[in-house]
Structures are given as structure tokens and as C-alpha cells.
Amino acid sequence: MTGTGSSDRATRYGERLEVPDLAPWLASRATVREFDTEATISESEVRELVDAGRKAPTSGTTQMYSFVWVRDQSVREQIHDLCDRGTVQIEEASHFLVVCIDLRRIEHLLTHRNREFQLAPTMGVLEGSIDASLAAMGIMVAAESRGYGVCPIGNILNNLGAIASTLDLPSGVLPLYGLCIGVPKHGEATENAPRVPLDAVLHEDGYEDPSTELLEECYRSMNAMYGESVYGDSTREWQETLERYWGPEGFMNRRERTLLDALRQQGFFAARGIDERADENTTQP
Amino acid sequence: MTGTGSSDRATRYGERLEVPDLAPWLASRATVREFDTEATISESEVRELVDAGRKAPTSGTTQMYSFVWVRDQSVREQIHDLCDRGTVQIEEASHFLVVCIDLRRIEHLLTHRNREFQLAPTMGVLEGSIDASLAAMGIMVAAESRGYGVCPIGNILNNLGAIASTLDLPSGVLPLYGLCIGVPKHGEATENAPRVPLDAVLHEDGYEDPSTELLEECYRSMNAMYGESVYGDSTREWQETLERYWGPEGFMNRRERTLLDALRQQGFFAARGIDERADENTTQP
Lengths: 285, 285
What we know:
By secondary structure, the first copy, chain A, is of the alpha+beta class. Chain A has helices at 9-13, 23-27, 43-53, 73-83, 89-92, 104-112, 121-145, 160-166, 212-231, 238-246, 251-265, 278-281, and strands at 65-69, 95-102, 149-153, 173-182, 202-204. Chain A folds into two domains: 21-188 and 255-278, 3-Layer(aba) Sandwich (NADH Oxidase), CATH 3.40.109.10; 194-246, no CATH class. Chain A has twelve helices and five strands. The first copy, chain A, has a four-stranded antiparallel β-sheet, sandwiched between helices. At the A-B interface, helix 1, helix 2, helix 3, strand 1 and helix 6 of A face helix 1, helix 2, helix 3, strand 1 and helix 6 of B. Strand 1 (65-69) of chain A pairs parallel with strand 5 (202-204) of chain B, so a sheet runs across the interface.
């Protein structure tokens, strides 16, 4: 916070590289849903991409995340099966990572220095998902700058506990979503990502509920490119997806129970600490 | 998922711009802690940066976030006070945004189309924080590409309910962290971000607990540039921060209660839906 040593930092760590204005490029990005299954990306590149992404901000330098790089094709197939809906990208992309909250490493680090760790489960979920996602977005940006495409897989939340068990994840580690990285089948992602108008998302000097006109405009802008762009189905409209996610019978409500069970299985509700093995916890519902 | 219409997408939406390999640039990034208080960034630029960032992936196109752009300097001062620890960047940066989970807009969108919304609180917190953070990282990358610096403010979690009230945020909206955007006082962020070794974070074909050697290496790499780089204090070591965050008396444990209270205040535990006003909920602990 003080200026100590600031003036010579440039000479110590070197000047930062120059890049062009990335706003227009970022504004043109889109998730890739079809990968070239013949294409390969080297393992050293995957390490470079992850290394670049994790320089994203992290709460108090604590780095509450891990990436599990799943290379065994049969494990990828199992995870695809457990996702319950067509996310064939898990099998078809060149690489598949699972983005995880990781409080376990923090506990190990503190114990190693004879200090005590105490779990705060809700904060752990919140800060861990923030930390992990900031880093994951960095990985995606790095991958896309190399011409690769990315596809996050949120459907792992449909069967979270089973996926954690398939990956043999210990207590303190919670999977959040998958991250497919590969070469786009059609050369690049050109569909762009449909989004509601900026005014629905950016509130100036306070929070304002959307007017009827703005709600209509949200549907217009989403449906203009929605069905075919996202699902290859021009008849599909956005309200169906919103209801599928947030309606009374939607994914989010079904996943709520799955998530709470997975949190318990992975030790997030243990009385103190996360040192029990995940598989021991499953016998104590 | 099908190939319908894919072949002519490039002509419909145009080819994506080219950028250089961003991995080395991202790997050199760092949070800026000192801003030039005389510098200005135009309001239209802020809108461009937010617009670029929110093309980040979002779960099922639902966009469960909002950004509250706080321009009133006295409100910035109030938030700085409520953060409880020195985060003077809130006042000194050119712009200050509050990154929020927003389930309220989803409810409005569904209701507008005569469909029902039903809250799934834990999923809302998890998916909302993921969505918001992917977008926030996009904003940061866009800002940094223009030579600006960013500083996320996690300390709003120290007094979350009061900050939500200060911003008059309604039910269904939960602040997560602040985002300062400004011109770095020393020209650029040159400190780089200290991180544990990649091997502690990237697990290949399974999850492996860190060995004693790797734990030692984590401390070595963090402490090599930690104190002065992050706090301008060369005597400060990383284990102190880890304990301040995750020890029994740490921030995370103190914030756990604050977070649960704020979630209740913001309607996340309402029996169904989030339609009560936040200020009504506070009377029902």
C-alpha cells in the first residue's frame, strides 16, 4: 500500500509486453461447440495456458482452486455419461480440465507450518468459485488468442458427487465445471455470444429494475441469434432455456440438492476442518 | 450441437479479429494498488470494457450478474469505510464497479413472460459467482490491454449487508467484490503476481496432495516476492496471510456469519422466489 520500492519495480521485473486493445476481440468471442477431433494441442501448451490464467487476481493471494487435467479417454467418457445431457465436447476436444474449488491445499499449507486451518464452508464455496473462475477465464483468453476454442461444461453439476468420486477427489475439493480446449471444427468460433443489452447489466449509481421495454429488448436481442447460434435449432427461444434453468422444475432446483449432497460428500460441512476423506463422509448423510 | 448453419456463420457474423499470443502477457499481469488520482477514463470507455467482458461464458446464457457503477464519491467513501481495512483504491481509482450476483433480473424476465421463477439459493450463489467472475475477468483483461490497472476489492465481504444497504440493492442481488479501474500511478503494474508452482495447482489424471517438498516450494516461491510486492513490506511472509484468511480467527470465518446474514437480507433464503424487498427481510432473522 505504501510506495516502498515501487520506483524500481520496473527495472526489477521488466516492462510488461504490449498488446493491442483487446476489447473488440473479447466482445467478439463465443464458446466453441464443435471441435476438430483429429487436431492435437501439445501438453506443454496446456501447461502454458494454465500458467498464464492463474495470474488472475486471487483473494489474499490464497489461490483456492485446482485444475484436474483428465487425459484418460475412458474417464472423459464416464464424465460425459454422468453429465446426463449431450456434452460430447468432453470427448471431442483436445483437452479436458475440471475446474475445482480447492481448500485442501490451504489446509496442507497451514498444517505444514504448524498453524491451524478452520473451515468456513459458505465463504469457501463463494471465494473458491470466484478465484477458480477468474483463473479459468484467463486460461480461456490465452487459449483463444492462439486460435483454439473453449467450451465450459456446467452440466457436471447434474451429477456432481458421482463426478467427484469418479475423479477420486478428496475432501476439500469441489468440482465446478469442465473446460474443453480444442481446435474449432469450423476454423473459429464465429457465432458470437448473444447477450441482453448492456443497460440490463450495467447499473449506474444504483440498481434499477428493468422496465417492460428493457425486458422486451432482452428477449429480442437474445432470440435474434439464440436458437441456431447456441443449439443449431432456429425454433428454440430463450424463455425456454430460462425456464429450464430457473423454473420450479428447472436444472437449478434439481441441482440444488445435488450440490448440497456433493458439498457434504466433499467435507464442506464437517464440523471443523476438511481432513476426513470424502469417501468416509458419504456414509454420514 | 448439430452442424446446421455452421458453414455460413463466418459470412454472417464476420471473421474474428487477430490478436497475438496472449499467454506471456497474461502471465505477466498483476493487480495495481496505486492509482494516478489525477487521471481520467471516459465513461464511454467503461461501457466498452464492461460490454467486452460480459461476452465471457455464462451458464445456459442466463447471465446471472450485474455491475453497479458507483460514481458518487461520497458513496465510494462510505464503502471504503465499511470495508474496514485500507482499500483506498476504492476512492483513488478512476472508476469503481461493484460486481454482483443478480438472480432478480432472471425472475423479472420469467415473470414478464408469465412463467414461474423458483429460487435455488446455493446454486444461485455458486453459478452467480462463477458467471460474474468470468465476466469480471474479461473486463479486467480489456482494461489492462488499454494500459489501465485493476484492483479487485474483496474486503467488501467484511461488511456485506451494510454495503448492500448503502447501495440500496434489492432482494436477489448480492455484492461480491469491488472492481477498481484506473491509471497506474507508476505507469504500469510491474510487480507480477506471486503464485505457488504450477504443479501445486494443475493435477494430471487425478488429484494429488502436495508433497512436503512441494509445500516448501510453495512458501519459497510466494515469499520470494511476497511482502514488498503485495504489501510494500519486505518483512511480511505468506503464512501470516494464509492464517489471517483461513485460521480459526481469520477473515474467512468472521465473514462466514456476515455472508450468511447478507444472503438472508438479500432474500436468498426466502421460501420461494426473491420477491420480498431486502429491507423487509432484515426484520425476519
